[in-house]
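User: Could you check the structure of this?
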Amino acid sequence: MNQQQPAFARSRNPELDRTDLRATVRKFTMDVIDAEVNHRIRHTDASASRNMVINEILEAWASEQWHRATMTVALAPINPLLQESEQGQEPA
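Assistant: Sure, the predicted structure tokens are below.
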């Protein structure tokens, strides 16, 4: 299966808090997102949108990944981001 990288609609601007992202997703995935949007519009939030739901999903995933990476670095016996010579240790 061909795994394409997501295409950014415009280059990232470090001064902006957001950037555009275009991606191809399976029809099943889009159907579930649309169902969630329709439920929210009818029952909880008349201003709900695909963009809102997708952002919630991606932000939760990104937060989980950030937490996992932070815990990995915090629990490592040494800083895995530094070379052994930078930590004053001789390579084995």
